[in-house]
Write a structure and sequence with these properties.
- By secondary structure, this protein is α+β, with helices and mostly antiparallel strands.
- The chain folds into two domains: 37 residues, no CATH class; 97 residues, Dynein light chain 2a, cytoplasmic (Beta-Lactamase, 2-Layer Sandwich), CATH 3.30.450.
- The chain has five helices and five strands, in the order H-H-H-E-E-H-E-E-E-H.
- Strand 3 and strand 4 form a beta hairpin.
């Protein structure tokens, strides 16, 4: 009668998992995997971009051309992208070949990433590296068909 109690105490002290805990963990992992598999394929490029942003822990994504015209984004994104594209163009004129700008405001990081003919504007609560920004841009670009 005391053996199971002491066994649990020893397992807790040694930070080992009992067979029951291991089984519960496996079940939880399988449930999470099933939930991921059940997610349906995004129907629009906006949904696709939002899903990619979610995978990289980015709060919002807006994609535009260099002139500020929004390719992917919500209605309120137009004003943001005009400012971001003009800021990028100014910095790029002073420092040719600029690919990425990182702007920190009070509580968020604003990342402007240029790839080919598009500007990507990421807003996040944490920093992202240029490699992550490039990977997000590539994955978003796969689904976009932009007319020149």
């Amino acid at each position: 009668m005391l053996v199971p109690f002491f066994k649990r105490v020893v397992y807790k002290i040694l930070n080992k998992k009992t067979e029951e805990e291991k089984l519960r963990m496996k079940i939880r992992i399988l449930k999470e995997l099933l939930e991921e598999m059940e997610k349906e394929e995004p129907k629009t490029t906006q949904e696709h971009a939002e899903r990619i942003a979610e995978q990289f822990y980015v709060d919002s994504v807006v994609v535009s051309k260099h002139d500020g015209s929004v390719v992917i984004g919500r209605e309120e994104a137009f004003e943001k992208m005009v400012k971001a594209s003009s800021l990028y163009e100014y910095i790029n004129s002073e420092f040719p070949g600029t690919r990425m700008l990182l702007i920190k405001d009070r509580d968020k990081y604003n990342i402007i990433y240029a790839e080919n003919d598009l500007l990507y504007f990421f807003k996040t609560s944490g920093e992202i590296s240029s490699i992550e920004a490039k990977r997000m841009a590539e994955r978003i670009r796969e689904k976009i068909k932009v007319a020149p």
